[in-house]
Amino acid sequence: MTVAGRRVLHAVGLLCFAVIIGWAVYRSPPDLFLIKWYWLLAGFLLAGLASAVQGLQMALFLKHEQSVATLRWSFWFTAEKAWMNTVFPVKAGTAGALLLLDRKMGVSWARFVKFMLLCSGLTAGVSIAAALAILPDAVPVLVPVLVLMLAVLLSRALYPIRWGVLSTLTLLALAHLMLLSLGIAACLAGLGHGSTVIGIVATGVILNLLSIVSVTPGNFGVREVVLTAVAPLLALDFSVIVQGAACYVILRLFASLLIATVLRGGALTDVA
To answer: Which of 34, 210, 239, 262 is least enclosed by beta carbons within 10 angstroms?
Structure first.
């Protein structure tokens, strides 16, 4: 896609985001005087922890590749990539990450891409298993477990890694989904909206799956369209779910930016 095409796509995504959020707030306006800031602070902290979990995944990858990167560098690298992918044209952060890994760490872009595919497979497996787990009794308990096991096996085929490390990465993927869902719950509570466990987990699953592939920067617009389409199928109030998701995404952006800013100087010194 050309630069002009990406800019148009970015603009369309932001327009969809603004329209859907505006309609959601119009339908269920939060009372600004009743906003619980301590819940929003909790959401911000949970978003930061979610970023740290992904930093641990990165640290395991670099250790497997026998890189000299420190844990601090891994946390900075992950946070920097996250906020750049949200603000700039599609996957600009990832493109920069590939170049940085190759030049500073001697890790080939192909190895990192394979690792990203592994993590994407684990993310999809954990998300689909969680979605099946919250469905009614029509789905046997064993099905989500089998789905997760299959995703783990297929993901390992993309990037062979020791079983112990793979197990840790799977647990981290599960922890990320839990932190994401708790962050959404905190945002909904902070905005004065109520929800159900199914609604919160379902929103977390959707956001987790959408994190695998970005159509627009930060998936602005795309995420809101998907949530609007899915909400009626799950008997959820789309306006509430959209507001909670948007709130979490914005908090995640600021949390990633803060972590990247705080760690940048020391992290770059680590590999100078």
So the answer is: 34
Is the CA virtual torsion 118, 62, 46, 229 positive or negative? negative
Per-residue pLDDT band for 17 (boundaries 50, 70, 90) equals: confident
148 C-beta neighbours (distance < 10 Å), count: 23
Alpha carbon separation from 261 to 83, 123, 213, 235, 256 (Å, rounded): 11, 27, 25, 41, 8
Q: What is the pLDDT of residues 146-193, one digit of tens each?
A: 999 999 999 998 888 889 999 999 999 999 999 999 999 999 999 888
Closest by Cα among 58, 67, 55 to 104:
67
With helix as H, strand as E and coil as C, how does the chain read?
CCHHHHHHHHHHHHHHHHHHHHHHHHHCCCCHHHCCHHHHHHHHHHHHHHHHHHHHHHHHHHHHCCCCCCHHHHHHHHHHHHHHHHHCCCCHHHHHHHHHHHHHHCCCHHHHHHHHHHHHHHHHHHHHHHHHHCCCCCCCCHHHHHHHHHHHHHHHHHCCCCHHHHHHHHHHHHHHHHHHHHHHHHHHHHCCCCCCHHHHHHHHHHHHHHCCCCCCHHHCCHHHHHHHHHHHHHCCCHHHHHHHHHHHHHHHHHHHHHHHHHHHHHHHHHCC
Token look-up 């930060």 returns 218
Buried b (16+ CB within 10 A) or exposed e, 6-16: beebbeebeeb
Q: Are 130 and 49 in contact (CB under 8 A)?
A: no
